[in-house]
Amino acid sequence: QQVxxxxxxxxxxxxxxxxxxxSQILKMAHCRVTCEDSSLDVKPKRITMETPVTFxxxxxxxxxxxxxxxxxxxxxxxxxxxxxxxxxxKSSRGGGEVExxxxxxxxxxxxxxxLHPGVAVDLAMRGDYIVDLEHEEHLxxxxxxxYDLQKFQTFCGSVKRTILLDGIGGKEDEEDLQDHLEIHFQxxxxxxxxxxxxxxxxxxxxxxxFFSEDKMDME
Length: 219
Prior knowledge:
This protein is of the alpha+beta class.
């Protein structure tokens, strides 16, 4: 799960190459940034992140089970199960020996389990199968999937090299103002340092920012 932050108009994100520079800037209540014909008071803020989550989803495709979809409710459920078993047992149609059949009348879905692996895979690749109900019906078939959630972990994430600049109310062009911010915060005389990246957006806009793990420290 990628960590995000919604950047509002009049804000900027600033990532320094060194943590200590970001820490120095955050100790200031405000910073006065000089522009061409004016100056701005901007407020450095620490970024508060939502709790990041990592997990793995494992997908298993059954080699013995086959899903049968949209079975017409043309007869009682028990009889439909029997017809499914008889139809999918026919080797002339690509079927095989059936171990068991489940059928849900509400969803009109069936699950056929074959005795030997491989038959279900071959039929799923075809996409449909002829089933003998009241009439021959071409029914859609698909694989049976099983999902397993593993290695689910939450982290306490902190952003140590990136700061948020708030209260930027300048009326200059967006790119020009971003350049002034970068010039100001890269000067050691302003407690700044080398800047890795910066992004400013003007009033009336929003921007979704995405953080990679190298921009965060995971604990």
